[in-house]
Amino acid sequence: MKKTLKLLSILLITIALLFSTIPSVPAAPDTSVSNVVNYSTDVIYQIVTDRFLDGNPSNNPTGDLYDPTHTSLKKYFGGDWQGIINKINDGYLTGMGITAIWISQPVENIYAVLPDSTFGRSTSYHGYWARDFKKTNPFFGSFTDFQNLIATAHAHNIKVIIDFAPNHTSPASETDPTYGENGRLYDNGVLLGGYTNDTNGYFHHYGGTNFSSYEDGIYRNLFDLADLDQQNNTIDSYLKAAIKLWLDMGIDGIRMDAVKHMAFGWQKNFMDSILSYRPVFTFGEWYLGTNEVDPNNTYFANESGMNLLDFRFAQKVRQVFRDNTDTMYGLDSMIQSTAADYNFINDMVTFIDNHDMDRFYTGGSTRPVEQALAFTLTSRGVPAIYYGTEQYMTGNGDPYNRAMMTSFNTNTTAYNVIKKLAPLRKSNPAIAYGTQKQRWVNNDVYIYERQFGNNVALIAINRNLSTSYNITGLYTALPAGTYSDVLGGLLNGNSITVSSNGSVTSFTLAPGAVAVWQYVSTTNPPLIGHVGPTMTKAGQTITIDGRGFGTTAGQVLFGTTPATIVSWEDTEVKVKVPALTPGKYNITLKTASEVTSNSYNNINVLTGNQVCVRFVVNNATTVWGENVYLTGNVAELGNWDTSKAIGPMFNQVVYQYPTWYYDVGVPAGTTIEFKFIKKNGSTVTWEGGYNHVYTTPTSGTATVIVNWQN
Asked: Is 30 a catalytic residue?
């Protein structure tokens, strides 16, 4: 008997050892930390670095810069990269299901303490008052600390996004060079120049913007911040070199600050330089107010090669769940209208609050926070959660919305809502890539479905905290069966039963309830869920993510032109962009068994490397309602198609009417032909004479000035 037990023990130990050596199944490529162009399967956690956790007190500021009591809200509190490392290592972030962190701008900021009428003294704790884009903020850590942060994050399958603010340096005064550090910009410790006596033209000097027009916001200072002139060759090359330094450090994404306040053409050329060097997911900040829809915002999202923070989403979610100034019909309308307007809706970064807004939670019931988080985590787009929202932090306006992290409690309901829903973005492609469809709605209840191939998620939310609703007549794409709530009743959700025709048995949705029901299929037709980057050039590699591609290489087509396959897996394919006539292309994939996928549209193939050229035309007089536009013989200028002409051009700040100007991204080292046109509604008037001819520079920036030809 003893011999039998001994043999059995040996057998069990052997089996245990065998299983312990079997490697874990790797994540599908589109869920991997190495895929830095696709964030559809990720959940971002935004951290104001100084306000999260002090992991290394030895790098804290001294004197008037620092407040160890955390009460002087515009001074440094001591949060640093080591603090973030600590919260990765102890499981706080991974336990919540976070797979990407967005941290404050990491560059060296000014050391001056500025007078503040409300708070007495004000510092650069937020990271937006840059001094040297090629050095670290020492109060956050050294380059070694930064690399440790990236290594730690990657070891825990977390991507790292940095904030980057190429619009400006620091607060400055035209007449008082002693104000703060007066906008001074350094290049790895060497002074380039300051705002006063700016003989090299590194900054704009047109005063502060009154936000009256798009043009005014671009070329005038944002508040008192020294506004960089990206059209200056030194600044252009400096900013491109600086972002490459951080890309070389291994960052996985960029959040671009204040994109509304920089010229579109320069930013498109800046994005091209990033995508040509090391493509990473990039999204910009273009603030929109409540119910604001801006065609310039939409154009930027569709044409710049950069994605955007989805303020239309955020503002509507706040109206519906926080302020009760709109209904679920308004929420559904926003989902439909943004899907129609934005070409790459699943790349828009969604959120409910951030460092530039009042915090979502205002006290009282926490259920609206939990519902808004659930909606964000299960809707289209890339969800971003502001640090402390899961701890129900409050605070109206800057800096009250940027207080020190109050707790790292893993038992809050909000934390556990995120914990349960965040992983769905990787496990269910309907959440990551699906189209969104309203299935049942009234003023208080919104039931919507996400579907991608055979994968389905159905979500129900009742925002009314005191009234239940009887749900009848609900249909779904879920297969027949009974489905339990993924949240496990955390938000008072229930199970449902689906019949063979897709009808859901009537049920009661409790007051304040949220329920998530899902089906994940093991078999799928070939479906493309994401392509990145969406702005590219011949010879560059793009990544195609989805399901059902098969394990044997098939074919990827740009229109009708096949691309060279770099790698092929069932959920991810990489290809080289073929030599094509520049323009917009629809991408399809054909499996080895000749099954064709859906079409992924509007991939922009550029003529070549981009530079920014300022086009100026003199003496272009117009009548009321008429504006001047630019067109030409390359795709970047619309290929002579007046509906794709660049503009309307500007005529108020850098140059004044009847001189018009516009900064445009155009192919480098190329002889181009162009003309100006006047548009008044559907009426188009061309200038006379021969085409203007100009050879663009091979790098840097340039200006070309011509006269309107009658």
From this structure: no
